[in-house]
Design goal:
The protein is 24% helix and 14% strand. With 393 residues, the protein is α+β, with helices and mostly antiparallel strands. It has a single domain, classed as paralog of FGE (formylglycine-generating enzyme). The strands form 4 sheets. It has a 4-stranded antiparallel sheet, with no helix packed on it. It has a 4-stranded mixed sheet with strand order 11-10-8-12. The chain has a 3-stranded mixed sheet with strand order 4-5-9, covered by helices on one side. The longest helix is centred in the last third of the chain and has 20 residues. The N terminus and C terminus are likely disordered.
């Protein structure tokens, strides 16, 4: 009987390997961990009263890591670009007015030291007291931890740009993985974190301005505020990302909001979205194009390879499946965009804490394709756990 159990286990492991390409270089299993018990409270002003809109530094319990959040005031703005703006694209209009509630935004893009702390959770899979698949009814309360980076493809490119140092922006994670980071961070700190909406991102980038850039309309000034195609070359002569916070900030204290790495927002890319809202006055919630498929997604601000017009406040960049073409796994990983070296993200925390239902809308899987991969892996892993030989006491 013992041999039969082992045989079944081996077959399941083989199915798992075939499903996720384990034989290529790295394990691509999906680690799902339950958030157990009450989340830790923040050890910083982040846990202050909801009406507090002062900048704060957030600590991550259990580590010496910290990051800065700056206040973004409430207000209204016209989203998109006017027809008179140079280099504008059709999907940037017509403009419409959006009302924004106050929130906090990351002073810098999320850096590798923060993201590496998140990635460390995967290594606990299979260890005593480690992660197990939660029951179906608890999946909404779980964090799905990313698999290791596929280093055969990504390692050399990242190393060329300085590796995964603490002051460099974290990159190549997918939209889903970025959301899972915010879910994990919320559980660790006791404060709600999420990705910005597209409207919030543009509002924060503009910082009360109506020009193409927050510093005006002249792209010749962009080099003072951003790493982009003309100034991002590294020692080897090729472009790459740079340490955060080395350029001038925008008027609201946000560094690298243009260039360095483009930033993931919560919305699905829809070229017709603005046409449905043109001329209207809407809330920030009404302006969201909630995702319902894996691609295309939106990134904002342009990256180190972008030309100046892609760094404008209104510019919208789409991410398609092409950003993951070199992923050797089948199906392709839901956690990494293997060609997304110039894509990262920035954090948002609203002043007013939302309902649990709204929190999960910002955190949880929103694509049937990704949900299918997660579901198949959950089933395989649960069978492995159940069929694994029990150790004698």
């Amino acid at each position: 009987m013992k041999n039969q159990s082992l045989s079944i286990k081996q077959k399941l492991l083989s199915r798992w390997a075939a499903l996720f390409g384990l034989g290529t270089a790295v394990c691509a299993a999906i680690a799902i961990g339950c958030m157990k018990g009450a989340p830790a409270r923040a050890e910083t002003p982040a846990a202050a009263a909801a009406g507090d809109t002062k900048a704060f530094t957030q600590s991550i319990p259990g580590s010496d890591l910290k990051f800065d959040m700056v206040p973004i005031p409430a207000g209204k703005f016209k989203m998109g670009s006017p027809e008179t703006e140079k280099k504008r694209k059709d999907d940037e209009g017509p403009q419409f007015e959006v009302s924004i509630e106050p929130f906090f935004m990351g002073k810098y893009e999320v850096t590798w030291d923060l993201y590496e702390e998140f990635l460390r959770n995967y290594n606990l899979l299979g260890k005593k007291g480690g992660f197990v698949s939660p029951p179906i009814e608890k999946l909404a309360d779980a964090v799905s931890y990313p698999t290791p980076i596929y280093d055969l493809a990504a390692g050399p490119a990242l190393q060329r740009m300085g590796g995964r140092e603490s002051d460099l922006p974290a990159v190549i994670m997918s939209h889903f993985a970025a959301k899972q980071f915010t879910k994990w961070l919320s559980a660790k700190t006791g404060r709600f974190y999420r990705l910005p909406t597209e409207a919030e991102w543009e509002y924060a980038a503009r910082a009360g301005t109506t020009t193409a850039y927050f510093f005006g309309d002249d792209p010749a000034q962009l080099g003072d505020y951003a790493w982009f195609e003309k100034n991002s070359n590294l020692k080897d002569g090729d472009p790459g990302y740079h340490p955060v916070g080395k350029k001038k900030p925008n008027p609201w204290g946000l560094y690298d909001i243009y260039g360095n790495v483009a930033e993931i927002v919560i919305d699905q890319y829809d070229p017709e979205q603005y046409k449905s809202l043109g001329g209207k006055s809407v809330t920030w919630r009404d302006a969201i194009r909630w995702p319902n498929k894996q691609y295309p997604r939106i990134v904002r601000g342009g990256g180190y390879e972008s030309d100046p017009d892609a760094c404008r406040s209104a510019s919208r960049l789409r991410v398609s499946v092409a950003k993951n073409e070199q992923d050797p796994q089948n199906p392709k990983s839901p956690y990494w965009w293997t060609e997304g070296f110039s894509i990262g993200f920035r954090l948002v925390s609203p002043v007013k804490e939302p309902t649990d239902e709204e929190k999960h809308k910002f955190w949880d899987v929103d694509s049937e394709a990704v949900k299918d991969i997660l579901g198949r892996d959950r089933e395989i892993r649960q069978n492995i756990i159940e069929l694994a030989p029990k150790k004698d006491k």
